[in-house]
Amino acid sequence: MSIAYLGPPGSFTEAALDGLYVPRHNAVPYPTVRQTLDAVRRQEASAGVVPWENSVEGAVTESVDALASKRDLSIVGETLLRVEFALAVPPSGTLASIRKVLTHPIAHAQCRTWLDDHLPRVDVVTTSSTAHAAREVGTTGTPGLAAIASPKTLQRYGLDIVAGDIGDSRDAVTRFVKVAPPMVGSLPTGTDRTSLVVPPTDEMRHLHDVLDEFDRSGVPLTSILSRPGGSGLGSYFFLMECEGHAHDPVVGPLVAALARRHHAYVLGSYPRADLALALNTAVPART
């Protein structure tokens, strides 16, 4: 079966496929994160690849919410990709002619300083991906329209780059995850990550109790993200990530305790990608 990914062709997610050992000829683009995941849920694809976290802007909440909203998919792998941004216009366009810029919200956040300094009066319109922005500008050729994406993507859609390396951080890295049905899992490798979801609660002390579980276990908690639970203000679910695999002798009992006392569930245990190497290229994680 095919592998779904957040497209269109030329997206950063497509570039991340190599790090997850996904053959390009077997990859099918989908226009949104939710449609990418739903393709796996409908068994149109055996797995899906979506952006998960950025080193500058943080979690890709669209992916977190879409994956955590149901318990029918699991994270089975990850890869890291260094991201670079450029600004481009249709042929014959110039930097001075730009009146509107299209890009993804996270790309916009990473290029905000440059835009404020060089194009302070230009409108920014967000799109589902940077590749979608490049394709839109390249297809319409509308004067005054520009796109922010990777240099290769901009050139792929026939655009002329008028400003390169416009990101606020030269070491920006985005983390992408591969998701599949729960029966497809990863065996422990010794360098793993486990992602867990703690369902919504209205009790303020609930988070303290969960953190106490981690403290008693000694398992390193590496990140925590709160998201609206959907049942009113003050109700949140938590995405927590820790070192180790759910089948490890230390992590396993912690996962069991969190499930028993707080209804937490594992979103995935999978090999952890190497951040140091990611500054140069996509880094594969064994799956």
Structure description:
With 287 residues, the chain is of the alpha/beta class. The chain has 3 domains: 1-83 and 173-186, Periplasmic binding protein-like II (D-Maltodextrin-Binding Protein, domain 2, 3-Layer(aba) Sandwich), CATH 3.40.190.10; 86-164, Periplasmic binding protein-like II (D-Maltodextrin-Binding Protein, domain 2), CATH 3.40.190; 192-271, 2-Layer Sandwich (Alpha-Beta Plaits), CATH 3.30.70. 28% of the residues lie in helices and 32% in strands. It has 10 helices and 15 strands. Strands 1, 2, 3, 4, 5 and 11 form a 6-stranded mixed beta sheet that branches. A 5-stranded mixed beta sheet has the order 8-7-9-6-10. Strands 13-14-12-15 form a 4-stranded antiparallel beta sheet, with helices on both faces. β13 and β14 form a beta hairpin. α8 runs antiparallel to α9. It is elongated.
List keywords for this structure.
Alpha-Beta Plaits, D-Maltodextrin-Binding Protein, domain 2, 287 residues, 3 domains, alpha/beta, disordered C terminus, five-stranded mixed beta sheet, six-stranded mixed beta sheet, elongated
| CATH level 1 name of the largest domain | Alpha Beta
Number of strands: 15
- Gyration radius, rounded: 20 Å
Largest sheet: 6 strands, mixed
Order of helices and strands: EHEHEEHEEEHHEHEHEEEHEEHEH
CATH level-3 fold name of the largest domain: D-Maltodextrin-Binding Protein, domain 2
How many domains? The number is 3
Please tell me the CATH architecture of the largest domain by its name.
Answer: 3-Layer(aba) Sandwich
In CATH terms, the superfamily of the largest domain is Periplasmic binding protein-like II
